[in-house]
Write a structure and sequence with these properties.
The complex is a heterotrimer of chains A (370), B (397) and C (193). Chain A has one domain. By secondary structure, chain A is mainly alpha-helical. Helix content of chain A is 63%, strand content 4%. The mean pLDDT of chain A is 84. Chain B is mostly helical and 397 residues long. Chain B has one domain: Cytochrome-c3 Hydrogenase, chain B, CATH 1.10.645. In chain B, strands 1-2-3 form a three-stranded antiparallel beta sheet. In chain B, strands 6-7-8 form a three-stranded antiparallel beta sheet. Chain B has a two-stranded antiparallel sheet with strand order 4-5. Chain B is globular. Chain C is an alpha/beta fold and 193 residues long. Chain C has one domain: Beta Polymerase, domain 2, CATH 3.30.460.80. In chain C, 16% of the residues lie in helices and 21% in strands. Chain C is globular. Classes of the chains: A mainly alpha (370), B mainly alpha (397), C alpha/beta (193). Chains in contact: A-B, B-C. At the B-C interface, helix 1, helix 8, strand 6, strand 7 and strand 8 of B face strand 3 and helix 3 of C.
Amino acid sequence: MNIVEILLNPYVQAILKIVVFVLLFVMMVGTVMTLMERKWMSAVQDRIGPNRANLPLLGGIRAHGAFHILADGLKSIFKEDTVPDGADRFMFTIAPFFAFISAIVIWALIPFAGPIGDFKFQITDLNPGLLFIFAITSLGVYGAVLGGWSSNNKFALLGAARATSQMLSYEVFLGLSLMGVFMVHGTLQVGTIVEQQNQYWFGDLIPKWGMITQPVGFVIFFTAMLAEAKRLPFDAPEGESEIIAGYFLEYSGMRYAAFMLAEYIAIVGVAALTTTLFLGGYHVPWLHADGFHLLGGHWALPQWIVTVLQIGSFATKVIVLCWFIILVRWTVPRFRFDQIMDLGWKKLLPVTIANVVVTAVVLLLWDWIG
Amino acid sequence: MRRLENLDLGAEPMVIEIGPSHPAMHGITRMLTKLDGEVIVDLDVDIGYLHRGFEKEAENSNYIQIVPYTDRLNYVSPLINNVGYSMAVEKLFGLEVPRRAEFARVIMMEISRITDHLTCLGAMAMEVGAMSVFIWFVKAREYLWELVEEVTGARLTTNWTRIGGNANDLPDGFLSMLSDRLTKVEAVIDEGDAMLLRNKIFIDRMKGVGILSKERAVSYAFTGPMLRACGVPYDVRRADPYSVYPELDFEIPVGSVGDCFDRFLVRMEEMRQSMSIIRQASEKLPAGGYLTHDRRASLPDKLDVFSSIEGLIDHFKIVMEGPKPPPGETYTAVEGGNGELGFYIVSNGTGQPVKCRVRPPCFNFVAALREMCIGHYVADIVPIFGSVNMIGGELER
Amino acid sequence: MTASAETPNSAVPPLTALLQAAFPQSVRDRHAQGGEETVIVRRQGMLDLFRFLRDDPRCAFDLMIDLTAVDHLPRTPRFEVVVHLKSLAHNHRLRVKIPIEEGQEEVDSISALWVAADWYERECFDMYGIRFAGHPDLRRLLLYPEFAGHPLRKDYDHRLQQPRVPLRAVRERHDYEMRVQYPEGVEKPRNPA
């Protein structure tokens, strides 16, 4: 067996893709987000942000605070790992795993660039792709609930109770908003959905991105995913001022770092999912596999440049959305818990159902006309 | 609200201790809450974590030594406490303070009032989740503290007023620095205004929360912004005018409903009124001395101390025995950041007071917390407690 | 501040004269030193006096501004409970003083008339040991329950250190028995700190 045959083995390919996409891209971006959150928060607040961590052996180089990531990681590893008295040890230990798993596994379905021949830049392209993503996001509830319940602490319990209600409710809207996407594209396969977003209206002018075909769905999906990720303005389970830290109150050291990292990876995951489903994924407008096509003109490009541009466009969109999510966190106050429930069930649910109905009607009319 | 008796679940209300060390309990306060789900059924406020024995210490110090203790009462507006105390002792003596010192006191008091409101509103915003507004208001507070530091030498432990005047005059170039900083502060307040006051989420969190009716508020002897938010236009600066306030033109913002949003708005508007007062006072600032020459209460000039025997004797007596007001008692009230800050001083002719009592304005608000919070959600404790502006130093002295 | 004894030809009698006329047994003395009207009343019948002060339209004292006590140790009567009142309608103030003897430190509670008095009376009890009859829940406010003594009394040395309290068990209900102890003399317990 030579190296090429090994590389063509689909299992080896999957493992390589996991290493490159998940470990290199997702974990990197997730950890960099922990720092960028603090830097962008400081930009909103008119200050500089963390910039002191340095490498003393290399002459005290600071790199504008980039080493804080390393410092935070090392600090978390060295902290005392406490399990509170009376806590359920097993549940306490596995709770961060649930949060982490649900944040990472959805990355198995997200395409980073267009397929080159048979090779897809996606770890796997399941047929019921969207359903799988749903299922995995629902598992995230367990992380919050088990963590809060097993901590033997009333504040954590309050946080867990709020997390349960909030996450379970907003999954309903998540699903319903994706119904519209499903109807427009006719498939649950994520790769195909992204491919279909590269089609154009009015000749070659306007790309059929999900944002344009499903604007209401876009907004509701984004909001529901923010609520799933428990980010401000929906961060009642993590209360901060009221119930101190909510469900991860009693966690410290690496377990806490696991929850935090899971949260940041979830943010990047939210950004990636929104990009994939609504912002055209890795597509650059008017760029096809063989170059730019615009209004009849054609500018040929070699395949590898196209791939690089697509990866770049995906990364840009994800980072811009992350920036937006972080900006929202540091601008907007937090909802009270009953207001979250109110917003969801009394306001978002009717809108989502109306969205589904209107989409269905428009599609039928479209078919009937042309 | 579900009634507990109608449930057959064998469920008990949960007793949870919010405090003493908690991000939202400014100063330190412990609230034992009994919760039914997220609704507060009962609440017991437990204070006293910052009780430092101000009154006992005051009874064992002479009248000038008490001034630094008063800084630490309402530590976000220290100059108001300084002035209030000095005014009370001056009343006992029957002293006249020079006009320039009065105007300087008014300027510094209003600066303190703005810092007090900035802290309160910033903390309220931060706890509701808009953390950036807190940082902006803290930045504005820094500008004001630069001014305070120019005049008194310290940002918080100002120790600036003396009996019969102030410790020093306003420094040169202060007035231009003042107008420059006030412009910057106004810009920040406008930013905070734009960020919060038309934000639906913020309004939903604050409106209708923590309402106390006008009659109950009066029975709880609320004063200051809390009472004005309920609709009663009571301000000590207008009701019992002191210092040079009768010559200054300002309005008193009054709310209507008495919920947290009204209190927020009243404090925002009061900041703008304070800036207007400062500008008027700095225009009308007359020339003159900064400390009375009455030797019973204030230290004489160093030149006199070293060149005349009377100066030396007066200096010696004041330093060793302290100023000795004639026997009597007085209750003097000033308008603090939170309301009517009263000083009740009883003197028996010696250098140490028999009683030096501070009437803390936020004492009444915290006493009313129980009534304001019951029936609301746990998450509502945060805006209510924030709007109360409990300053531990003042509440517990 | 008040339309009082300072205006020479005032047709309105000072408030304190009005009170003395209405309650001749209760009011012992009155003065207006420094322009601040003060009335000194007896403990018996004080509730009626306060109710008059709150409800009578000429008085209308709806804000109970302050309630505290003063300890004049070498003098008798030793304690004085001092209440400051303010009227929003007429904008006048009044100080009411109730002297009490050592050993009989009990007065009636006015918390039924003004809710504000609730906490002020608790603090007064905490600091001076003066009991308020009829108060719904008289327990210490600023100090912890195991504190022995009443600090603002003149015979409590301000340098006294209290012994350390052992860590309490977490209780579900916040109730405890109040034990008021008067230390014999000024005792400095050993405090290893």
